[in-house]
Amino acid sequence: MAETKEQEPLQQQENQSTMFLIKIMSKRRTWVFLFVSVYTILFSISWNFLKTVLSWYESTMSNSTTSASAGWPALYASVLLGVAFGVLSMVAALAVAVPATLVTWITILVLLTFAGKPRRDLVLEGKKLTADIIGFVVKVLIKEGNVVAALCAVLGYFALVRRNKDDRVVDY
């Protein structure tokens, strides 16, 4: 008896904290705050990575004495920048794609329900639909990330090589 009386306040505290968490997470401003926070962190990380790669490139170029070896550090730096911005674009696209995909998935399941599908068939169709949608979203995200990465790598390479040539012209 004494144990159940001690457990009741503990269960009430757990229920209250769970209800408070559910209430907080149901607010739109909470999700906006989380969204902005995640993107701020991603932007900060990518900005710091960009500064690190550029400082590495500058230190490599200041130590390099021959113009023949000037292209390799630019290539490495541009590939690193391309990969970073490709991944960043995939994360950004994922944040947009997930809600749209969820709405599509729910709409299709509701339409199948109204079409008179039995519950078992609906569950099977839902599993197939989930796998198809996830596969399609992953393919699109990888394709988009690769395009952005390649574009950023090419632009970065030419910008770094041009910057290096401009610095050498000024030095002479």
From TrEMBL:
Domain of life: Eukaryota
Coiled-coil regions listed in the entry: none
Alphabetical UniProt keywords: Membrane, Transmembrane, Transmembrane helix
Transmembrane annotation, as ranges: 31-50, 70-88, 95-116, 136-160
Protein name: Pyrroline-5-carboxylate reductase
Organism: Nicotiana attenuata (Coyote tobacco)
